[in-house]
Design a protein that fits this description.
Blueprint: E1 22-30, H1 33-43, E2 46-50, E3 54-58, E4 67-71, E5 76-83, H2 87-94, E6 103-104, E7 112-117, E8 123-128, E9 168-176, H3 179-190, E10 193-199, E11 205-211, E12 219-220, E13 224-228, E14 233-240, H4 244-256, E15 260-268, E16 274-279, E17 285-290, E18 294-295, E19 302-305, E20 312-315, H5 320-323, H6 329-340, H7 346-356
Parallel strand pairs: 1-4, 5-8, 9-13, 10-19, 14-17
Antiparallel strand pairs: 1-5, 2-3, 3-4, 6-7, 7-8, 9-14, 10-11, 11-13, 12-18, 15-16, 15-20, 16-17
């Protein structure tokens, strides 16, 4: 029996406001910038700029930064930046309800931006015109002797014992109470295309992995993933490294330096990435990955049932603690408020909990 999506979203929009070109950066509030920086450097990012109020970090690619931690009393995920193609795209977005006017971007790289909020309250910066920086030097992927193909002769395999070089910010995953409205906002205004959707037994989406619409240029299987949840929350973000040895060495280094492991190593089913997850000082999950799938805009959306076993092809089964939120009084009250409003329904939340926990 074919699986059928029984809700309006997620679905590609025939004429989006703009088509985002890249995930530019993520924004976090953090009480302790020193401890935040220590984790992120051990994880493989590189300091781009540090002020008393903000910490900017970069990957090896030519973007001036991909991660900003802002000094604040309480930790939280603020939102994301999306790169758009032109100033005309900024003009179109600035006309949306609640959007800012086009303004100078004062963070590293400069350019211009429009500030928006998605329906779940996350900040979204549309950015254009930032100046590129010199890419960082990085090692090449290691050559493997596989099958009968002996490409490495008289040379032992010695990956560097150091934090893995992060090539780029890959994707972010958000949990949403009002899934339909928020998913529709990203497909309508930024042109995201669902690559794969995991469904609950009633046909409602539980998780949608969404890619950029780059036309005939292959795009990562997902740059943004949206998951149904009781409250609006950050799930995790992911950072590409050069090869599987970099994923493994990342685990080795982070373990040696005392950080908390969350899940891995394994290979995902949807997206195919070899992955490993770690928690920052505030419990926020950060993923190393390599060897992810890429699709053009022509690839159709795939549908499959949600299951814990379907999260990985091999490796450790996803721990129940990975998806289960830490219960606090504010979280329980927020979840209760959302359920009473019908977004999400109690039936779908219970179905989600039965599958995942």
């Amino acid at each position: 029996m074919a699986l059928v999506l029984k809700t309006a979203q997620p679905a590609r929009h025939p004429d989006p406001t703009v088509k985002a070109q890249a995930l530019a950066y993520l924004m976090f509030d953090r009480p302790d910038l020193d401890e935040t920086e220590r984790f992120l450097i051990d994880f493989g990012l590189v300091r781009a700029l540090r002020t008393p109020e903000a910490l900017f970090l970069r990957a090896a690619e030519s973007s001036a930064f991909c991660y900003v931690a802002l000094k604040a009393d309480k930790p939280r995920f603020r939102g994301l930046g999306l790169r758009v193609r032109s100033r005309y795209d900024l003009e179109r977005l600035s006309g949306l309800p609640g959007a800012s006017a086009i303004e100078p971007a004062t963070w590293p790289g400069g350019g211009e931006r429009v500030r928006l909020k998605d329906p779940s309250g996350f900040e979204v910066h549309a950015v254009h015109g930032a100046s590129p920086v010199q890419p960082l030097e990085r090692r090449s992927a290691l050559a493997w002797n596989v099958g009968g193909d002996r490409v490495r002769v008289d040379v032992p395999q010695r990956p560097p014992h150091a934090p893995p070089e992060v090539l780029k910010l890959g994707h972010v995953v958000l949990e949403l109470a009002d899934y339909q409205r928020t998913a529709g906002w990203y497909t309508r205004h930024f042109g995201f295309i669902p690559s794969d959707v995991q469904l609950l037994p009633d046909g409602a989406p539980a998780v949608a992995f969404m890619r950029l619409d780059l036309g005939s240029t292959p795009a990562d299987h997902h740059t943004l993933a949206l998951a149904q949840g009781p409250v609006d929350a950050y799930s995790h973000s992911a950072y590409e490294v050069v090869d599987a040895d970099a994923v493994g060495m990342g685990q080795q280094v982070l373990k040696e330096r005392g950080w908390s492991h969350a899940w891995g190593i394994g290979r995902h089913l949807l997206g195919s990435q070899v992955f490993d997850y770690w928690q920052d000082p505030y419990g926020a999950k950060h993923e190393h990955y390599t060897d992810g799938d890429v699709f053009t805009a022509d690839a159709p959306t795939g549908f499959c049932p949600l299951s814990r076993q379907g999260m990985a092809q091999w490796g450790q089964e996803m721990p129940k603690s990975f998806a289960k939120p830490k219960l606090t009084v504010p979280l329980v009250l927020a979840a209760l408020k959302n359920v009473l409003s019908g977004k999400p329904s109690i039936g779908r939340l219970l179905a989600l909990a039965r599958i995942m926990f």
